[in-house]
């Protein structure tokens, strides 16, 4: 008899827990929907207040504002937020990418000497190269 009562209490606690969780989820969905509709209304009011004066655009209805809101979310993203520990992972990504580009940076650093080289040796070397090719008849024009 006692085991039945203990079992019933356990089941009752579980049911109560799941009912509370369900009510919370339902409340979050309803509040989210209300906030979405309110944000859309605010967007409509802002549009109708600012756009005609600033850009000469016409006013929009509630449903047109909803379309603008959805289009903006599709084009510019949903705000995704950051993940926990973002600082760590982004630091590691920066570290990895800096190693990948190290050779490119090294090659780019060598280009700072290009102007001086061209002034000192480049024109003479280029003319010698052209002369050599013309003597051997291996120019690209032929």
Characteristics:
142 residues, elongated, mainly alpha
Polypeptide structure, described:
The protein is mainly α. Helix 1 crosses helix 2. The chain is elongated, with a radius of gyration of 35 Å.
Brief write-up:
82% of the residues lie in helices and 0% in strands. It is mainly α. The model has no long low-confidence stretch (mean pLDDT 81).
Helix content: over 70%
The major sheet is characterized as: none
Low-confidence stretches: none
Discrete helix count: 5
Distance between the termini: 107 Å
Order of helices and strands: HHHHH
Morphology call: elongated
Q: What value does the average pLDDT take?
A: 81
How much of the polypeptide forms β-strand, as a percent range?
Answer: under 5%
Write down how many β-strands occur, each being a DSSP E stretch of 2 or more residues.
0
Structural class: mainly alpha
Oligomeric state, counting identical vs distinct chains: single chain
C-alpha-based Rg, rounded: 35 Å
């Amino acid at each position: 008899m006692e085991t039945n009562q203990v079992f019933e209490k356990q089941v009752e606690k579980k049911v109560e827990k799941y009912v509370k969780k369900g009510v919370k989820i339902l409340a979050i969905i309803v509040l989210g929907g209300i906030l979405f509709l309110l944000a859309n209304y605010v967007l409509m009011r802002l549009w109708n207040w600012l756009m005609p004066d600033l850009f000469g655009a016409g006013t929009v209805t509630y449903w047109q504002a909803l379309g603008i809101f959805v289009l903006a979310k599709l084009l510019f993203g949903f705000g995704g937020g950051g993940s926990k520990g973002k600082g760590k992972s982004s630091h590691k990504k920066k570290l990895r990418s800096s190693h990948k580009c190290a050779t490119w940076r090294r090659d780019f650093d060598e280009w700072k000497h290009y102007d001086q080289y061209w002034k000192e040796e480049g024109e003479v070397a280029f003319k010698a190269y052209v002369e050599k090719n013309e003597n051997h008849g291996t120019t690209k024009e032929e």
